[in-house]
Amino acid sequence: xxxxxxxxxxxxxxxxxxxxxxxxxxxxxxxxxxxxxxxxxxxxxxxxxxxxxxxxxxxxxxxxxxxxxxxxxxxxxxxxxxxxxxxxxxxxxxxxxxxxxxxxxxxxxxxxxxxxxxxxxxxxxxxxxxxxxxxxxxxxxxxxxxxxxxxxxxxxxxxxxxxxxxxxxxxxxxxxxxxxxxxxxxxxxxxxxxxxxxxxxxxxxxxxxxxxxxxxxxxxxxxxxxxxxxxxxxxxxxxxxxxxxxxxxxxxxxxxxxxxxxxxxxxxxxxxxxxxxxxxxxxxxxxxxxxxxxxxxxxxxxxxxxxxxxxxxxxxxxxxxxxxxxxxxxxxxxxxxxxxxxxxxxxxxxxxxxxxxxxxxxxxxxxxxxxxxxxxxxxxxxxxxxxxxxxxxxxxxxxxxxxxxxxxxxxxxxxxxxxxxxxxxxxxxxxxxxxxxxxxxxxxxxxxxxxxxxxxxxxxxxxxxxxxxxxxxxxxxxxxxxxxxxxxxxxxxxxxxxxxxxxxxxxxxxxxxxxxxxxxxxxxxxxxxxxxxxxxxxxxxxxxxxx
Length: 547
Prior knowledge:
By secondary structure, the chain is an alpha/beta fold. The chain folds into two domains: about 290 residues, Rossmann fold (3-Layer(aba) Sandwich); about 220 residues, Galactose-binding domain-like (Jelly Rolls, Sandwich). It has ten helices and 25 strands. Strands 13, 14, 15, 18, 19, 20, 21, 22, 23, 24 and 25 form an eleven-stranded mixed beta sheet that branches. It has a ten-stranded mixed beta sheet with strand order 1-2-4-3-5-6-9-10-11-12, sandwiched between helices.
């Protein structure tokens, strides 16, 4: 049920490129004078505001409009060019689209019902629009409330580690865009919307087309205050962008990372008025109404620690007090997991001169991606992947920050895909419950790194050329892991999973095109080639100690 008790009115302008674009304006039922404005822009058709926020309508990502009307704001929802009621060609997340949003922001700021102070709002694509418009520096844009939104369209979702996403592209483009336009009576080919899939698939490298629709490269142009809010459950789509957005903008900034562990949970949280009252409303009140509420005295970084279920604070990301912990892959059996190899993670470097794990694909038992099913139909997501599980931890340890898997690997093919998941294992025996805490992806032919942006704990792959591998030759692959924060309690374990494809159950909707992969890959973990999981670790006081 729609939560807004007023009817909007429509406004329109011609952008600097001549496109006629339109937006809906919501004003409080009774108001006097000019109001600060919250502004959202997307291709999801403002006409669909009648639908409630629910996972079956994943494109309903406005936030609680009525809350902001009650608090004395105007709310504006814009159809970006080529979508909904706006004319032109849909050139998604391009700089041209950002400039169209810029033009509408400035038009809105000049209206008699507007105070001239505009902040941007919304999650997912609406957040993409925030980064995108802000890089064009609209004079009237005073702050961002950037919830759950990527900044680097190539790395954050189109091509994970060089591998094209499959299910999300289909569900997003055909479900949230094309079919919804058709349902509203629009020509499904109108506005160039049907070309998006061809454009994406025609640009498998991080070329000029990709760079033009990745605000990441111009984030330093954003000098206005930015509140970047990420969600742990969106690590496969937007989360990386909330971290890079926080790190690269030039103005006042805060980072918050919240608890929901799923796509639906992120949407539910964003629709919750109490979440907005706690996190976003004070931000807008301070920057758009000049309310002295102490919001800028909040810690620069706040994050939910998975496994501990508490919020911690820091002055930077990664936190200043982190050190690097290393876990070496080993062929020794862990004895707690049924998988292709049941390998282990050890904190001592390997001493053997010959230790490796080989596996062949496609596995004959895969049923839903890597997931298999037993005779009762119960799914098993790790039986047919390679795993490396730690021994029970001897004390509580918190891993917060970045991570990288340094994998020495070879193949009998000229390329290989590496899909990595890191899980916290709590409980014992059949009661062990895995909680995914990070993940990463890399195609071996995309292994080249950008030296200017790479750090020891975060490789930044250039994705500018294809470099096939030589069958049988061992390569060092550095797989970036999405930022994480989790507590491993005494007696618990961590588990690393490695495969070349996804589970259609646990990894949906961010699964990858399998392609034509047939072969055998080998992961080397001996003294000459010590494959290693490296994680940022924060010091913690143990029972009976003080910190």
